[in-house]
Q: What sequence folds into this?
């Protein structure tokens, strides 16, 4: 690993150290109890009846046979749900579709809009009985015409997925005079790209257990990125928000797939109705079939540049497939719209972005959230431009890269350092000497792709996080934060920050996370926000606590207050005299000085802006670049990635080992997206509902990814950190496409880059592509 | 429903129970033996998450019908620990940050354990081949391979078969 450190403003002891996470030991001993591992006395087992059709009317739904089976405790349909709908408010939308209140029906009510849509719920004494009951529910469907392509969905006369029409959301950006700039450009590259639907495919399928606690509070312990779904459950049940509690145990992977509600509401309904504990575990097949996925997009890019490679204009049209329900589609599209021009200065830009309802599986949040899909567009364009003008791929990017103080086409000024050029140079140089092709029919090539990804939620959402930090009477430290840890080291980073500020070893810090009743609310573990937001909240709490402790300690030590330090579990005077933290705590207790503090961090906030007029959308952005070397077999079209160097400016690496893990794992997920993965849906029917057909990369499909960490010290997180959860998933697919052109001279514009697509591009296959393309 | 009486050893302890003939080893371990350290990822033998050692060989426990383990020896990840001491593979997974969400970790370590017993000093390529049946969605595998090689310790690597 390479690390480029900038001097810290304060000397750091713990932050910046690659120490093992506090949760690692439990995980290697398999002591971590995940959602499906939890059991309660008298526990029932929940199951979901799902629609067999992508578009149909439910003519008859009869649960009597199922309900009468021995061992069945409850069968619920839409009629049994007090409020059978969840609403998502999308502020700021300023198009003809108007402000959006997106609706999600929990159990199908008369109509099904996608294959796998939940129709009924069962709770029974065993999983086997629950499954038999699901099969005993009588449903009569009347298939209806469906629409399975977003362009077709927007054509006149298309079947309506929802009464209000198929255009779900639309955003647009206009700056400068694109028409004129494109006319005057020396070069215009006009290409349409297509990216596919993919699945999160975390190893832990959706699961949880719910029970009504002795105090009457509905408690749901589930695999989720968002414990604040307690509000959604309460709304559905029609009970006060403070009667529902959500606990997230350590989560077996999230990647956005556990951002929307999955099992929580169903568990809540079944436990509330039966007054017994209920467990629900989705099978891999139902997870792949029906849980919301990544948006496929069609991206048309027209890029104009001067002869020296300077960008003069971009005109971009985006069309995404929302599937059958809105979920977070409007926000995903906003991310896409704002970042569509990439990390570049574009004086004249126009982005027209739309997302449409279809009868395909719903799409929503997934790592990279709309911004990652754009990388294929803007980075393929940059590479084509470099090739057309005979410029070096690094040079063309360096000429156009954003700098601190520049404005994005949406009008937002970048307030922190933009390390795109350094990242591109480091990644490119990291490839080392070129390897020779193995045989005469192999070709080796290199590709580069840079990216921009927001961290933190949209400023219109007025995001905040809170965290509690306390010191026990023996000097050990406790952190409480409502942070779901989904495997990225979210909790451990907070321990490291508290340890740094309070001068105790990380092992002296205990953290309690992700309980909506007992830990201060910290918001979602999504949007690359948890280190940024909760890191700042813990930092604020720990600093306030330190200030108080130092004041008391200074009196004990009879030393000047500004000169006492906390280190090694003690307060230390300038002359080396020390008093143990435990002693200071006793004195705090005697004096009535609080030994804990609740820290709150408010992200920069703003009112929704009309994108066409421009303004601030996100708190800040993370920048990076990946370089790959690939080998293409020109007889089969097979592509092997030989080397992969991934470089991001993370501001400051709180734990470099966790940062490397995010970069390597994100790069791997990006390569899977680029080369292998696709949720194949034909006429609304999902053909990839097994990990045998939905291809997650194995250890043999991937190279070792070499992470390069830049630390500009210039981010909005604690100690100048930037978020790094989502950014690394963006560049790989475009880098591979660029490398393939370098190797073979053919440009691939559609993902995934399968051997068949490469073979077609190389002219190896005579027959036309199958109809689905 | 046919029930069968079976007895086998689980991490060195004898277990005797009656199970439905169609029940998988995975479900017997998790639901009847409380061995929830064995995780289910796909239920159809693709992801390797539910790997256990059956007479020393790594198998997907979701594909093994429980009656087939009668008289045999089953080892889960818990079986590798001796008291409070971690196995060198577990130590290496901690030190190298090879466990992120941790859900694939039990199966991954058991597969690595079987590899190192067969081939104490594998090459990087050997390790990648050995764990190709264990999916991980968090790490991109690099740190897992690093950890397994570190646990193997220095030695003369032989080329993989």
A:
């Amino acid at each position: 690993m390479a690390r480029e450190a900038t001097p810290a403003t304060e000397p750091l002891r713990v932050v910046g150290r690659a120490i093992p996470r506090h949760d690692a030991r439990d995980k290697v001993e398999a002591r971590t109890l995940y959602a499906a591992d939890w059991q309660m006395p008298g526990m029932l087992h929940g199951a979901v009846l799902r629609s067999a059709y992508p578009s149909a009317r439910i003519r008859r739904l009869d649960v009597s046979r199922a309900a009468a089976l021995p061992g069945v405790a409850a069968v619920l349909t839409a009629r049994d749900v007090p409020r059978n709908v969840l609403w998502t408010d999308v502020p700021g939308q300023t198009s003809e579709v108007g402000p959006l209140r997106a609706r999600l029906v929990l159990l199908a009510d008369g109509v099904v809009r996608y294959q796998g849509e939940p129709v009924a719920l069962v709770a029974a004494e065993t999983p086997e009985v629950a499954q038999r009951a699901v099969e005993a529910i009588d449903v009569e469907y009347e298939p209806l015409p469906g629409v399975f392509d977003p362009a077709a969905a927007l054509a006149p006369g298309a079947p309506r997925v929802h009464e209000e029409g198929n255009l779900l959301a639309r955003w647009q950006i206009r700056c400068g005079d694109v028409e004129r700039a494109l006319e005057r450009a020396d070069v215009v590259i006009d290409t349409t790209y297509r990216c596919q639907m993919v699945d999160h495919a975390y190893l832990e399928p959706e699961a949880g257990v719910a029970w009504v606690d002795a105090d009457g509070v509905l408690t749901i312990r589930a695999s989720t990125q968002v414990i604040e779904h307690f509000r959604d459950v309460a709304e559905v049940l029609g009970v006060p928000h403070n009667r529902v509690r959500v606990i997230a145990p350590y989560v077996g992977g999230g990647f956005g797939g556990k951002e929307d509600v999955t099992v929580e509401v169903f568990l809540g309904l079944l436990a509330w109705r039966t007054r017994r504990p209920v467990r629900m575990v989705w099978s891999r097949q139902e997870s792949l079939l029906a849980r919301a996925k990544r948006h496929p997009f069609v991206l048309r890019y027209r890029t104009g540049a001067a002869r020296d490679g300077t960008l003069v204009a971009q005109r971009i049209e985006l069309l995404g497939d929302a599937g059958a329900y809105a979920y977070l589609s409007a926000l995903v599209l906003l991310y896409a719209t704002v970042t569509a021009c990439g990390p570049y200065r574009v004086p004249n830009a126009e982005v027209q972005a739309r997302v449409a309802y279809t009868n395909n599986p719903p799409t929503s949040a997934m790592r990279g959230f709309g911004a990652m899909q754009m990388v294929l567009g803007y980075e393929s364009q940059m590479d084509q431009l470099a090739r057309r003008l005979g410029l070096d791929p690094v040079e063309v990017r360096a000429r156009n890269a954003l700098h601190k103080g520049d404005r994005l086409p949406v009008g937002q000024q970048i307030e922190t350092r933009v390390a795109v050029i350094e990242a591109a140079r480091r990644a490119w140089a990291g490839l080392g000497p070129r390897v020779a092709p193995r045989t005469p029919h192999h070709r080796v090539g290199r590709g580069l792709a840079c990216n921009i990804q927001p961290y933190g939620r949209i400023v219109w959402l007025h995001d905040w996080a809170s965290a509690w930090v306390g010191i026990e009477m023996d000097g050990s430290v406790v952190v409480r934060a409502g942070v779901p840890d989904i495997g990225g080291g979210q909790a451990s980073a907070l321990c490291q920050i508290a340890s740094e500020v309070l001068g105790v070893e990380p092992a002296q810090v205990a953290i309690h996370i992700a309980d909506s009743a007992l830990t201060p609310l910290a918001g979602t573990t999504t949007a690359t926000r948890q280190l940024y937001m909760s890191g700042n909240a813990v930092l604020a709490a720990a600093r306030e606590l330190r200030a108080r402790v130092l004041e008391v300690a200074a009196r004990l030590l009879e030393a000047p207050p500004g000169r006492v330090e906390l280190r090694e579990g003690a307060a230390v005077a300038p002359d080396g005299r020390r008093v143990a933290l435990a002693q200071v705590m006793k004195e705090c207790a005697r004096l009535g000085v609080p030994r804990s503090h609740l820290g709150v961090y408010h992200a920069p906030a703003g009112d929704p802006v009309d994108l066409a007029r421009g303004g601030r959308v996100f708190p800040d952005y993370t920048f990076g670049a990946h370089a790959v070397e690939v080998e293409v077999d020109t007889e089969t079209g097979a592509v092997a990635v030989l080397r992969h160097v991934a470089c991001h400016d993370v501001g400051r690496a709180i734990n470099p080992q966790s940062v490397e893990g995010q970069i390597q794992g994100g790069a791997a997920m990006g390569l899977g997206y680029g080369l292998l993965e696709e949720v194949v849906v034909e006429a609304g029917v999902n053909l990839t509902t097994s990990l045998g057909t939905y291809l997650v990369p194995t250890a043999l499909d991937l190279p070792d990814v070499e992470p390069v960490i830049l630390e500009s010290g210039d981010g909005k997180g604690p100690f100048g950190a930037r978020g790094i959860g989502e950014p690394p998933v963006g560049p790989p697919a475009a880098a591979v496409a660029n490398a393939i052109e370098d190797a073979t001279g053919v440009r691939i514009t559609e993902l995934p880059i399968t051997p068949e697509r490469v073979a077609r591009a190389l002219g190896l296959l005579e027959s036309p592509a199958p109809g689905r393309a | 429903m046919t029930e069968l009486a079976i007895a086998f050893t689980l991490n060195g302890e004898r277990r005797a129970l009656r199970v439905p003939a169609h029940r998988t080893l995975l479900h017997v371990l998790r639901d009847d033996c409380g061995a929830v350290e064995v995780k289910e990822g796909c239920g159809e033998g693709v992801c390797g998450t539910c790997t256990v050692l059956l007479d020393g060989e790594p198998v997907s426990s979701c594909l093994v019908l429980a009656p087939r383990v009668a008289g045999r020896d089953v080892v889960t990840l818990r079986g590798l620990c001796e008291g409070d001491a971690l196995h060198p593979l577990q130590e290496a997974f901690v030190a190298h940050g090879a466990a992120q969400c941790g859900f694939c970790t039990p199966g991954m370590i058991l597969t690595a354990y079987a590899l190192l017993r067969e081939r104490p000093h594998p090459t990087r390529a050997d390790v990648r081949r050995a764990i190709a049946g264990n999916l991980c969605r968090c790490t991109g595998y690099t740190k897992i391979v690093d950890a397994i090689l570190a646990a193997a310790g220095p030695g003369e690597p032989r080329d993989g078969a």
Q: What stands out?
A: DSSP finds 18 helices and 31 strands in chain A. Residues 530-557 of chain A form the longest helix (28 residues). Residues 4-8 of chain A have pLDDT under 50 and may be disordered. The longest strand of chain A covers residues 442-455.
